[in-house]
Structures are given as C-alpha cells and as structure tokens.
Amino acid sequence: MRYPLLSCTLAVWLLFYALPGHTSVVEDFNHVERCKDSLYMGTPPRGYLSTNLKKICQRYEDKPRYVTLYDPKKHIPVYSAYTFKKSDGEKHVDFPWMFEPQLATEKGGNNMEPFPQTNMHMNFEDTQAVLEDFSDVVQYERGHLNPDEHQADPLDKAATYTLTNVVPQIREFNTGPWSDHEDRIRKRLNNYCRGTAYVVTGTTTSGNMIRRDNMDRVAIPEYMWTAYCCTDFDHNAPYFVRYKFPVFGAYALNDRINNHLVEVPIKNLEKFLKGKMDVDKNFQIFYNDCVPDF
C-alpha cells in the first residue's frame, strides 16, 4: 500500500496543521505582511491567464521573506520575486528542505516547515512537490529561483530552501550557465546598485514531467528566465555595465547543450516570454518596466 496507516507522530503532526491560523496563500500581495516589500512598487508581474495559480507569501520564522507564484498542478513555481541582499556569495546547503502547509489546507500553518521524518499525507503531496520526487532523477538538481547566495541574513538564506522555490534543472545547466549568471548578477548588483534591487526569476514549461510511481509529478522547465530592477544605481559605472541599468533580463534553455544564457533588455525578454507562456498582451514583469515615476 502506497500510503500506510498514519503513525502516532504523523497523526499529531497533521492535527497541529489543522489548527486555525492565518494562511500565507493570499489573494494579493498589497500589504507588508503579504510580502508587498518583495516587489518593485509593491506590484507583482501581471498578465498571467491561469486562474489556478497560487500566490504564496513565503514566510519563515514568522517573517515575510519573498513572493512565489506557484502552480499546484505542475508542482513547480511559476516565478519567485525577492529583494537582492548584498552578499559574499557563500552558499549554505545544510538547511533542511521545507514545504508549504498552507497549499494543502486553508487552515494550514502560515510558515514553511521542514519535511517530517515520516511519510507525507496525500493532501500535501497532491498540491506540491515532495522530496521523493527528486530522489531518483540523477540528471536533475533542485534549482533555486530565489538563490541563497542572493541573500545575506541566515534566516533569509534558510527560507530559500523550500520546494516551492525550486525547479528541476539539468545538472550541467544548474552548475554551469545558470550558476555563473547568478554569481554575475550578484557581483553586478553588489558593486553598482545603490538602492534596493528587485529580482524576479521564473520558468516556462513545454509539457515534460518528472514521473514517480507512473504518475506525472513535477514539470521540467523548458526555459529559465530572470530580471532585476534597480532604479538607484551608479551612473559613473563603465558603459558595458551602465547600459544594463536600471533593468535588464536574461533567459536560457534548461538543457545539457545549447544552454547559453542570453542577456536582453526587459522588453525583449517580455516579448520572448509571451510566446512561451500563457499570458496576455499586457504581460509585464516590473511595474512600468522599472521606469520610476518622477
């Protein structure tokens, strides 16, 4: 039997999450406690047509950390949006992987929680990826959308280790072009962004899935894309850097070959993504394309 009778430990654990609480799966992000501060002008990307996507204010240790738009059918994030924190790029890989109780039940806890040592209940597995989905897929790694090396505070770093913030990335792509770009952006924003830098990183899919027990479980991204917005930047920066402010984007094929990452102006990125995602003609990553209102 795939799901044995619940142990006493798991039964108590499920009862704990059935207690009333404020959910962080929200209708919108227009309040500080719903992660508004993670978004440029408090505004999320617009133009997504699907009505099944879930807005998650990613909370850890009772504090809002960043935003994720999550697809509970494909079991991957559509995008994560966060504020970049200047850092030395050090990774902390000893944090436990976590999940989102609130995706399974409206009465679930409002903080991400470490996976239990016992089996996950079907309610949770139906709504999100679980560790078993990644256990036998050696060609894929869990690739962060909000990477821990773009955060400085240990708790902000820890909050990136939830499966609602990761997607299956081809190992060679994750450790090669994608990792190189994350570090390139870290150094660029460290050195030349004077104010707050807002980042949105997302995926496109083409129907390929990780399967487990003869069931489609986790969508495999076709392309990865990312963009940053920093309106307060160093105007004396060298031109080869300065023209990539206040906003710039990038995309790459999630593959072993032909996975070269292409950096493009934000309008070019949006045009590319309109042909790859279920979005309308008004699709926009940053409010007013990161052009500040004066």
From TrEMBL:
It comes from the Eukaryota. This is Endonuclease domain-containing 1 protein-like. Residues 63-293 form the ENPP1-3/EXOG-like endonuclease/phosphodiesterase domain. The lineage of its organism: Eukaryota, Metazoa, Chordata, Craniata, Vertebrata. Coiled coil: none annotated. One of its GO terms (molecular function) is nucleic acid binding. Residues 62-279 form the DNA/RNA non-specific endonuclease/pyrophosphatase/phosphodiesterase domain. Residues 1-23 form the signal peptide. Keywords: Signal.
